[in-house]
């Protein structure tokens, strides 16, 4: 089935990839849900589609070279609680989205931070709507954000979160090149091998399968939509660097000449510029054209890239793993806060954004079943020290010249979740239909009750390999 590029939001399959983005969180005032829905429906023509991205990419890039354009791209996500208020006839089989981010954060994602202190999506300030403004002209993005915020306030939506995020030469704050290993989507990317149904509703997830829809949809709202996951992750760069500096010294007896930079690369699985860690390579070899053209069957004893390294935890490729198909997500995150060396005390981190058609089977599986587990995706992997969460100390085995050494995190964690949300990123036509009358009939109501009962039972019992 051909992709409807004028309906699919542009940030899903293409990514804005702008130098800066303004992220706006909105919370619906009591009794104003219908007003808020009407305002959102009116924004449908303004949402940037995949076709718009293709047509306007050159104009957007011109802003970087002295162009006078003030192009601003817009993406929208709607929170599960708010969506349930305005579209009673739209329900989902996905436990993650149905139960909501706050209920899944601790038991599934391993986030034990105080939700009342979250910067975005706290109980008092739910993330009912997320607006993403992408541009290479910061003044234009701020102006457009201010304009829509004034409209939102009149429609019963209060601004509960605002942040400007900026790219740092394609790096995240720990200094590593980001976005190296994105899935290549069939029909979108050159050499695409993963079907669009893994990221957009209404298309096959595998060749020959029926189009995938994650819920009950009597009025046809799901097609061309996607699940948007937003997590605000603060990064303690100083603590990470200090840990690697101290540990490199302590481990020198096992690996003479081990540097802090090399240890950081082993924890991540790549060098800062993107090259995979390899035997005998003790400094960053620099970016090369084929830095993503590798697989792990050639490294069964994890002599080159540790099994617990972050990149191997989340994408073991065809190496050892406990499932046949590796779940993939489209990552659209962007750093917030200044670079560490320019302002060490300032808060900084990653505005993590991903798109997928199953939060439970994709994002939550990768997080709970793999990143947070010492025994997966391969039995002796150890923890993902960079991103994984755990109640107690975490450790990962590393193959050094003298033999295997267990690297412990000493009870430290360098990434702290500070809120977020699970949202629905609808197709443009669906967004414009938000205020249509609810579908008649009782069939969908019965299906909705059965779906809720199934999700409750499965999540309570932890069926599917995820914690309840």
Question: What would you say this structure looks like, in words?
Answer:
There is one protein chain. This protein is of the alpha+beta class. The chain has a domain of 268 residues. It has 13 helices and 13 strands. Helix 8 packs across helix 9. The longest helix has 19 residues. It is globular and about 70 Å long.
SSE diagram, text form:
Elements: H1 10-13, E1 20-28, H2 33-42, H3 50-62, E2 73-79, H4 80-86, E3 91-92, H5 95-99, H6 101-105, E4 129-135, H7 138-154, E5 157-166, E6 215-216, E7 226-235, H8 237-250, H9 260-268, H10 310-314, E8 330-331, E9 334-336, E10 349-356, H11 359-371, E11 395-400, E12 403-408, E13 415-425, H12 428-432, H13 443-461
Helix pairs in contact: 8-9
* Number of E strands: 13
- Pattern of helices and strands: HEHHEHEHHEHEEEHHHEEEHEEEHH
Q: Give unreliable regions as ranges.
A: none
Measured between the Cα atoms of the first and last residue, the distance is 36 Å
Q: Outline, from the CA principal axes? A: globular
What is the share of helical residues?
A: 25-40%
Return the structural class: alpha+beta
**Arithmetic mean pLDDT:** 93
Strand content: 15-25%
Q: What is the count of helical runs?
A: 13
Largest sheet: 9 strands, antiparallel
Radius of gyration from CA coordinates: 22 Å
Summarize, please:
The chain has about 475 residues and is of the alpha+beta class. Helix content is about 25%, strand content about 20%.
């Amino acid at each position: 089935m051909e992709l409807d590029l004028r309906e699919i939001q542009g940030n899903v399959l293409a990514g804005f990839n702008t130098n800066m983005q303004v992220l706006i969180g909105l919370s619906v005032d009591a009794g104003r849900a219908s007003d808020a829905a009407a305002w959102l429906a009116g924004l449908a023509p303004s949402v940037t589609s995949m076709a718009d991205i293709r047509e306007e990419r050159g104009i957007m890039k011109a802003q970087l070279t002295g162009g006078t354009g003030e192009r601003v791209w817009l993406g929208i996500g709607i929170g599960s609680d708010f969506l349930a208020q305005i579209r009673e006839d739209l329900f989902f089989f996905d436990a993650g989205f149905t139960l909501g981010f706050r209920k899944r954060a601790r038991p599934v994602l391993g986030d034990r931070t105080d939700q009342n202190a979250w910067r975005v999506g706290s109980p008092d300030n739910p993330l009912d709507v997320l607006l993403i403004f992408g541009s290479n002209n910061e003044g234009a993005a701020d102006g457009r954000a201010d304009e829509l915020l004034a409209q939102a306030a009149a429609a019963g939506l209060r601004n509960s979160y605002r942040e400007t995020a900026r790219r740092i030469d394609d790096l995240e704050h720990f200094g590593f090149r980001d976005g190296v290993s994105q899935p290549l989507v069939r029909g979108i990317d050159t050499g695409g091998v993963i079907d669009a149904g893994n990221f957009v509703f209404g298309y096959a997830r595998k060749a020959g399968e029926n189009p995938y829809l994650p819920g009950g949809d009597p009025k046809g709202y799901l097609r061309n939509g996607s699940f948007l996951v937003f997590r605000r992750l603060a990064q303690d760069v100083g603590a990470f660097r200090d840990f690697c500096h101290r540990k490199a010294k302590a481990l020198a007896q096992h690996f003479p000449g081990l540097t802090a930079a090399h240890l950081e690369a082993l924890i991540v699985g790549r060098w800062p510029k993107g090259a995979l860690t390899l035997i005998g390579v003790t400094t960053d070899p620099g970016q090369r054209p084929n830095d993503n053209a590798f697989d792990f069957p050639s490294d069964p004893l994890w002599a080159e890239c540790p099994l617990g390294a972050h990149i191997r935890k989340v994408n073991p490729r065809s190496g050892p793993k406990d499932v046949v198909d590796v779940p993939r997500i489209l990552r659209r995150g962007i750093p917030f806060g200044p670079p560490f060396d320019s302002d060490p005390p300032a808060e900084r981190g990653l505005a993590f954004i991903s798109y997928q058609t199953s939060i439970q089977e994709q994002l939550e599986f990768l997080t709970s079943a793999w990143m947070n587990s010492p025994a997966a995706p391969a039995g002796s992997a150890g923890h993902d020290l960079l991103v994984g969460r755990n109640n107690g100390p975490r450790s990962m085995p590393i193959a050094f010249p003298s033999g295997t050494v267990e690297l412990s995190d000493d009870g430290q964690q360098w990434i702290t979740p500070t809120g977020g949300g699970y949202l629905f990123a609808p197709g443009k036509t669906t967004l414009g239909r938000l205020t249509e009358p609810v579908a008649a009939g009782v069939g969908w109501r019965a299906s909705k009750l059965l779906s809720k009962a199934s999700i409750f039972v499965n999540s309570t019992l932890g069926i599917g390999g995820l914690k309840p």
